[in-house]
Specification:
128 residues, mainly alpha, 2 helices, 85% helix
């Protein structure tokens, strides 16, 4: 009888050990699967983001070129409409551009001051 209990206890211990080992192995496999899935999703996300950023940059460059041409049109239009010298029209257009740029820079600066870089912390003026 004593030998049977010892064998039973050792077989139970062996079973528990096997269960723990199988659980560890299963958890390792699950972790590896999650890593593979995350890498795949990250790769897809970065590919989409790079395409989007490329299109955004192209649009920004074309917008700046269009803005430059609009400035030229405004400059020549002011010069022709008011019979001002071309340099005066160019100066007026440049001052208008600088004022708009300054206002946008101040707005951007105030937005950036409210950004909190700590993860999980919302900015004070998030509007939610």
């Amino acid at each position: 009888m004593i030998d049977l209990r010892t064998n039973d206890q050792s077989s139970v211990a062996t079973l528990v050990e096997d269960i723990l080992e199988n659980t560890r192995h299963l958890l390792r496999q699950e972790i590896n699967l999650v890593k593979v899935e995350l890498r795949s999703q990250l790769r897809e996300m970065l590919t989409a983001a790079s395409k989007g950023l490329g299109l955004l940059a192209t649009g920004a460059v074309l917008g700046l070129v269009a803005l430059a041409f609009l400035g030229l049109v405004l400059m020549f239009g002011l010069s022709a409409a008011f019979t001002w010298p071309l340099w005066l029209s160019a100066l007026i257009v440049a001052v208008v551009y600088l004022v708009v740029a300054g206002v946008l820079a101040l707005i951007g600066w105030s937005v950036l001051k409210n950004v909190n870089v700590e993860p999980g912390v919302k900015p004070a003026s998030s509007g939610d």
